[in-house]
């Protein structure tokens, strides 16, 4: 049931705020103490964990990459993120102190399932972050942390991506709590920041959708798009690129903004659309100015630039041709808002081209073969 929306994808993007709030629900008390008893792994076992390897495919792997920045910062243990199909065949270094986190919306992705089986055979514990109760991946894992995004029908994953980030963040904060790598207050504040995100996502849906649609209409004949970002904006850029290629059949590439002059800038010719995820101008000043100079560099070569930037970021307004705005939020929270206009943009492009947004050609909702 599309509940009055034109497509499942449209409906599911509008469920982004609920996907975040439902995934947070019941997992902490009012003092900001995390309760992940549902995971059934002893706190002592978590305390011993000295490395995390995330295995996943597609959008789920980008959620893992976002979480890497947060978990390494909070827990001070290395987090590797690996495409499940690559992990399985490279003899990865796994010990009993490695926690393998398998992220999957469907819980049926064969590549991810094979990776977790391999990890368990090597004696590592596997925790699944999954959206589908009782599916194969959580059944075969040692523990599961469910995302509560609700059923996702459209082939292009949207609301599940946000829920996966939230669940992985909860896991990170829980590890920080048991290992004592963050103060109680810091954990509490971070949970408060997460709790504030649904209304910020709603703000983006309410105030930016029209601008996104107008921009999609202007760009309808574009043959390719480049997406770039830094830090947590980098996986967001890759996710935005994946959405557009999957449902609008446009050639896209998402890459780290710092790579620009190491190759991709050669692709920029007059009129080339470049989407740039701009970090907050507050706090991490260096990153902000570096990304702004990336906009200047591609603009100097004639690119049409679309920025996703914080409200009040005047540099973004000055240099980019179009700016999709996000409300102020801490850097680690920004992927939860920045991805939303990119989801809408892909949807609008596909709709304007008259394509079937829910069932794009050649793709299946869950890839159950290797
Ligand atoms: O069900 P899973 O989360 O394991 O699926 C992983 C990927 O196949 C999936 O995210 C795919 O990339 C989507 N079509 C992205 O929109």
From TrEMBL:
Function (record text): Catalyzes the first step in hexosamine metabolism, converting fructose-6P into glucosamine-6P using glutamine as a nitrogen source.
Reactions the enzyme catalyzes: D-fructose 6-phosphate + L-glutamine = D-glucosamine 6-phosphate + L-glutamate
Catalytic-site annotation from UniProt: 365
Subunit record text: Homodimer.
Taxonomic superkingdom: Bacteria
E.C. number: 2.6.1.16
Cellular compartments per GO CC: cytosol
Location(s), subcellular: Cytoplasm
One Gene Ontology term from the biological process aspect of the record: protein N-linked glycosylation
Domain SIS: residue ranges: 42-181, 215-360
Enzyme class at the top of the EC tree: transferase
Keywords: Aminotransferase, Cytoplasm, Glutamine amidotransferase, Repeat, Transferase
Organism in which the protein naturally occurs: Bifidobacterium [indicum] DSM 20214 = LMG 11587
Protein name, entry field: Glutamine--fructose-6-phosphate aminotransferase [isomerizing]
């Amino acid at each position: 049931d599309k509940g009055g929306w034109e497509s499942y994808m449209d409906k599911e993007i509008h469920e982004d705020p609920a996907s975040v709030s439902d995934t947070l629900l019941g997992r902490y008390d009012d003092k900001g103490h995390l309760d992940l008893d549902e995971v059934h792994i002893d706190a002592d076992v978590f305390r011993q964990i000295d490395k995390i390897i995330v295995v996943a495919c597609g959008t789920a792997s980008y959620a893992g990459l976002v979480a890497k920045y947060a978990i390494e910062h909070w827990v001070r243990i290395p987090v590797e993120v690996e495409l499940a199909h690559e992990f399985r065949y490279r003899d990865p270094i796994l010990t009993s102190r490695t926690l393998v986190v398998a992220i999957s919306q469907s819980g049926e992705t064969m590549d991810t399932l094979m990776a977790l089986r391999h990890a368990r055979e090597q004696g590592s514990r596997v925790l699944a972050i999954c959206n589908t109760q009782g599916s194969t991946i959580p059944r075969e894992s040692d523990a599961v942390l469910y995302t509560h995004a609700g059923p996702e029908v459209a082939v292009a994953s949207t609301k599940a991506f946000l829920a996966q980030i939230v669940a992985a963040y909860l896991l990170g904060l829980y590890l920080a709590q048991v290992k004592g790598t963050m103060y109680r207050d810091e954990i509490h504040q971070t949970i408060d920041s997460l709790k504030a995100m649904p209304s910020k996502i709603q703000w983006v849906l309410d105030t930016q959708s029209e601008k996104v649609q107008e921009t999609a209409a202007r760009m309808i004949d574009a043959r390719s798009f480049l997406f770039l970002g830094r830090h947590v904006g980098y996986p967001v850029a890759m996710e935005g690129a994946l959405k557009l290629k999957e449902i609008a059949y446009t050639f896209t590439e998402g890459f780290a903004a710092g790579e620009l002059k190491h190759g991709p800038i050669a692709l920029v010719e007059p009129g080339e659309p470049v989407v740039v995820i701009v970090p907050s101008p507050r706090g991490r000043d260096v990153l902000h100015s570096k990304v702004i100079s990336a906009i200047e560099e591609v603009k100097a070569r004639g690119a049409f630039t679309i920025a996703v930037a914080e409200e009040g970021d005047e540099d973004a307004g000055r240099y980019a041709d179009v700016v999709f705005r996000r409300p102020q939020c801490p850097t680690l929270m920004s992927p939860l808002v920045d991805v939303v206009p990119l989801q809408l943009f892909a949807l609008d492009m596909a709709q304007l081209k008259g394509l079937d947004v829910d069932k794009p050609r050649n793709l299946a909702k869950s890839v159950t073969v290797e």
